[in-house]
Amino acid sequence: MVQKAKILLVDDRPENLLALEAILSALDQTLVRASSGEEALKALLTDDFAVILLDVQMPGMDGFETAAHIKRRERTRDIPIIFLTAINHGPHHTFRGYAAGAVDYISKPFDPWVLRAKVSVFVELYMKNVKLREQASLLRLQLEGGQPAGGEDAKEAAGLLAELSARLAAVEEQAEALSKQLDESADAAAVATAAHLERKLTGLRRALDALEPGAGNSDTPSVPTQN
């Protein structure tokens, strides 16, 4: 069974949460509700999420403050945040959203198709990251088995390493294409997304290189976790 990604929806108005669920249900992922910033932070203590859709205007702890707490936690600081707001105060207000760590900032009413498409990108990146970590963990266990070079397990490990590298290379190629597009675009959301993806890929490539035979010492290489 394919594991589903979790998407955190944060809004103090039940009707808005219902609307988001209707829009994102087609992605066939696990949608988790939070009616306040405090409730969102509690959910983030125990579960891993692919992306967070966060309302800006909420009583008590607003979206900006909630995002600040999320970014301060090592476990959650790399989770993409998409801000949703019914009030547009102009460029300064939008910049505050990006400064708080958002990868995108969308004003209501928004195009349901556009929102669904943007969320699907982060879900896909999350699922690829999970798959890469699982394969790297399996490979590490095989290498720790101490099988001599040329053995069946060693051959299987080498094949798995090659497959892992190829999968990562495909994602790196997509990231490179995105960077080239940014040469002609000043869109802050795209820049933030590209930077987030680059950090993830750099960590994954470093961990994969450490698994190569003869790389470094015999210590078990660390594999980046999904935050």
UniProtKB/TrEMBL annotation:
Coiled coil spans: 154-188
Response regulatory domain ranges (all copies): 6-123
Keywords recorded for this protein, A-Z: Coiled coil, Phosphoprotein
Residues recorded with modification 4-aspartylphosphate: D55
InterPro entries according to UniProt: Bact_response_regulator, CheY-like_superfamily, Sig_transdc_resp-reg_receiver
Entry-linked SUPFAM superfamilies: CheY-like
Stated name of the protein: Response regulator
